[in-house]
Amino acid sequence: MTLDWLPRDDQLKDHDLWGNEFLGTEPPCTMYELRPMLDNEGKAASGLYAAWITLNNPAQHNSYTTKMVKGVIAGFHKASMDRRVVAVVFTAVGDRAFCTGGNTKEYAEYYARRPQEYGMYMDLFIAMVDAILNCKKPTICRVNGMRIAGGQEIGTACDLSISADTAVFGQAGPRHGSSPDGGATDFLPFFLGIEEAMWSCTSCEMWSAYKMKRLGLITKAVPVLKEGGTFKRNPAVITDRYVEDGEIVYGEFVTGEKFKQSRAEVEKLSTDFTRLDGAVNDIVWRFTNLMPGCLMKAIDGIRMKKKYYWDQAKIPNRHWLAANMATEGFLGFTAFNTRKLTGKDVIDFVKYRQLLAQGAEFNEKLIEDVLPRKK
Questions:
Q1: What is the pLDDT of residues 204-254, one digit of tens each?
Q2: Helix, coil or strand: residue 207
Q3: In the chain, what are the domains?
């Protein structure tokens, strides 16, 4: 049978809106790469690819700048409109962090006390989450390290998460002048249930990859630490299933002297993402061997539940987050951005509450009283 009726490559319509305008390779940036689709024997399937969208700002824990947000939007749209792409892998450079959220330096030095500017930035952030949720390819978050704050939110927007077992997960908004309204307050109740979501969003506590697997936030936690050629589980995490004081402690971080010892042990080990990448490729290969239309209908059917809550709140959250940059956002991000000068990354919370209890005006005097002072 001849295939002469098929259009030539140069006759196919291009549905990409941006091209490579917002994508690059020099940090801070968002990188876009097509990697050959590999079968279970490591052989490439001709003409099929996995699109890798990679946050490249390791010096600042892959926190996203305004330019990088545009790159994520462009990357997911580009992958969505590429007929050759089977699935999208969303990850970051290095072994320390997937993403710790918005770039706090940019927040503190530009957006703080500029609510209108931050509102426009939030329009881009919303478009970034929408780009992930609307991508017409399966999306996999390859968690190579810390997934915190806005990093957690864009990660949970993905369909699946495969994590290095050294990663930590959590929110930081209420501690540093914001609220986790970029997706966490919408997605986490769906993933974790109300109680766990409430504690995650309000406590700013950090949780391990194994705990996230146990609670259902991620698909798989994969060892990435090696000693003498052998993979070892993260020694900083309890990986034996037992109960202590009526609570399951599987996946909790060790504490006290054990934590210090585990940190020293980790420093001696090397990091190898071979197994993590293998787990990601296994999923992409599984997707390759499914009917693409049926696969995307199933994925969009599940995404609809996440999108329902996200769509209900994203616009009012946009306006509140913008207004907040004039007050607590300014305090929180300024404190964090000046931590090297002051030795503290948070305001004096007790003093701030005392001033509010006295009906104090939010003015320069209040700001001076609660921000950390230079050492």
A1: 999 999 999 999 999 999 999 999 899 999 999 999 877 777 788 899 999
A2: strand
A3: 11-224+273-324 (3.90.226.10), 344-375 (no CATH)
